[in-house]
Amino acid sequence: MNKIKIITDSTSDLKMETYKQYDIHVVPLLVNFGEKSYEDIFEITLKQLYDRVEKTKEFPKTSAVSPAVFQEVFTKYVDEGYDILFVGIGKELSLTFSAATMAAQELGRGNIRLVDSMNLSSATGLLLMRAGELREMGKTLDEIGDELERLAKKMNTYFAVENLEFLYRGGRVSGGKYFLGTMLRAHPIIKVSEGKLSVYKTPKGKMVKALDEMLAEFYRIGPDNVDTGRVMVTHAFADDSVDYMVKKLKEMGVDEKTIYIGTAGSVIGTHCGPNTIGILFIEK
Q: Which SS3 state, helix, strand or coil, does residue 131 take?
């Protein structure tokens, strides 16, 4: 049985030490300011991105990489005798999966399994960590791929956004909704369902109301019904909200050791804005 190389894109929002722990190759997506492109994680951090927006008032765009980039990466590992498992941002949310698919088809050799995470950010990261664990258990490429596809359908992903400006600038909120939401101090909760983003609820007033709504959804399911026992809390400079959510999760009986706190990368951060926070977990 060949060795298995796990490959992802940079929107999976794990810590660098986690990528290294599970031996995961990260293909960076791009953040674009005008004609200049920067590789997510490697050439621009979330802090650098928000500092630049604050200073220049110029809002970036994001883009997937070309199939040629994936083909180069796939070729490298196929030539080294690896089977390849690619798990990246959901195909309904980005052209990234299509680029990876085209690259595998163009390469035309090697054993390459592409898994649609049907998700984004550390929900994808959670699947990657599970893939690494299954590989260590000696599972085959298809056994791992089949299990990840099963788990992807059971993922729960909720993000609360502090303000609507970044969503508006990215074209995901209309001007009317942006104006009204700002006046009402709305904090939309974004849910991923069947691979697509939708507004789940729109609490108004203090941000803590949105945090409590997400926690209520987790409480409804219950910590005993979380597959793999791991809960992801991912944020964009929302330290106070992280502290609040971790405190509440512990009060619900969640072992703090199973809570993985991560930071959004520049691509995800471009669309959500500062003080966004999410909770992501797999339901049994």
A: helix
Measured between alpha carbons, how far is residue 82 from residues 7, 77, 105, 210, 226 in Å?
11, 5, 17, 44, 32
pLDDT tens sequence for the chain (284 residues): 789 999 999 999 999 999 999 999 999 999 999 999 999 999 999 999 999 999 998 989 999 999 999 999 999 999 999 999 999 999 999 999 999 999 999 999 999 999 999 999 999 999 999 999 999 999 999 999 999 999 999 999 999 988 666 665 555 544 434 334 444 467 888 899 999 888 888 888 899 999 999 999 999 999 899 998 899 999 999 999 999 999 999 999 999 999 999 999 999 999 888 999 999 999 99
Single-letter residue type at 218: F
Cα(123)–Cα(132) distance, integer angstroms? 15
Positive or negative torsion for Cα 197, 63, 270, 124: positive
Sign of the dihedral through C-alpha 87, 90, 93, 95: positive
Cβ neighbour number for residue 27 with a 10 Å cutoff: 21
End-to-end CA distance of the chain: 30
Query: Is 277 in contact with 159 (CB distance < 8 Å)?
Result: yes
List Cβ neighbours of 31 (8 Å cut-off, separation of 6 or more): 37, 38, 40, 44, 49, 60, 61, 62, 266, 267, 270
The span from the CA of 203 to the CA of 217, in Å, is: 14
Six-digit token pair at 208?
A: 């803590």
Strands (E), 49-195: 61-63, 82-88, 112-116, 155-160, 189-193
pTM for this predicted structure: 0.94
Residue entry with tokens 């809390």: 233
| Cβ-contact 265, 41 below 8 angstroms | yes
